[in-house]
Amino acid sequence: MKRIAISGSHGLVGSSLVPLLMRAGYEVRRIVRKGSEPNADDISFDAIESGRGDEVFGDVDAVVHLAGENIASGRWTDEKKKAIRESRVESTKAISECLARMKQPPKVLVCASATGYYGDRGGETLTEGSPAGSGFLSELCADWERATLPAARASVRVVNIRLGIVLSPKAGALAKMLPPFRAGAGGPFGDGHQYMSWITIDDVAGAILHSLASDKLSGPVNLVAPSPVTNREFSETLAKVLHRPAFFPVPAFGARLLFGEMADALLLSSARVQPDKLVRSGYAFQYPQLEPALVHLIQK
Fold it and tell me: Distance between CA 218 and CA 216 in Å, rounded?
């Protein structure tokens, strides 16, 4: 496997994955959004939607699909939900159907999903075999994964990576938490009892590379560290690493006032997820424990 097509190459995950793939000796072809002007080696999403699979992906060994509307970039209005759904489900369906039409499709499709699939589950231990939860995010993830079925039926090995909370100092949840915690104004959301299934950006990139290479992996794969923590534990550990207090919790009603429905789905819900398939397939986490992970990321 030498040539990989990737969407979302400039996003949080893609911008860490692409350099890792190139260091590992892979040639990367970027999938660019509709209406943009592709470079010579890029793949246009317009061409993918045309269904010309052999022309578009004929020289590609694997596809990694990461692109999609940012779920946490604003309140979940009806319009925002529609944009989130279309950017994930419809784009995945287009890629999957394009691959299915090929005479010799790429060997593997790694497609983003999220641990939001499980919904709010309290302290229940969740694995890839656990059923879906309820609510917008759970339904979105279920439809998102279902959109890869055409490729799977065409004998493409499909890996649906259920991403947990990706920790990076550059973007995402940790980047947003760092300023208030550095100012000594951080604290848990709500009662802090909800579980956070986290993973460092380093392990996300490493696990995707592992998923591309490992024939053992297919279907849903939880991309989370093996040591989920409660929101209170996360807040206390981050404060400890920064040598700051964590005395300013955000009450549940305050989070709902600020973020609406998104607060319940992303900030106050609890998902205690385990990476069973990754562990069984032999993936070795670089940062399995939270405190060393945060020290590494903050120094980075």
Answer: 7
Evaluate whether residue 107 is within a structural domain.
yes
End-to-end CA distance of the chain, in Å?
31
- Give me the number of domains the chain comprises: 1
> What average pLDDT does this structure show over 166-174?
90
Residue 84 lies inside a defined structural domain of this protein: yes
The domain of 135 spans 3-166+198-224+274-286
Q: Per the structure block, which two tokens stand in for 99?
A: 């691959």
* pLDDT tens-place string over residues 273-294: 999 999 999 999 999 999 999 9
Cβ 222 vs Cβ 278: under 8 Å = yes
Supply the CATH number for residue 100's domain. Answer: 3.40.50.720
Once rounded to an integer, what is the mean pLDDT over residues 224-228?
98
User: Is 252 part of any domain?
Assistant: no
Of the ranges 43-57, 123-137, 251-265, which one carries the lowest mean pLDDT score? 251-265
The stretches of the chain forming alpha helices (DSSP H) are 14-23, 45-49, 53-57, 78-85, 91-100, 136-146, 149-153, 172-182, 201-213, 231-242, 252-259, 261-262, 276-280, 290-299
- CA-derived radius of gyration, the chain: 19
- Mind listing the pLDDT tens digit for each residue in 85-100? 998 999 999 999 999 9
d(CA 209, CA 207): 5
The dihedrals phi and psi of 45, each to the nearest 5 degrees, come to: -65, -25
Residue 178 in domain: no
Exposure string over 228-240, b if 16+ CB within 10 A, otherwise e: bbbbbbbbbbbbe
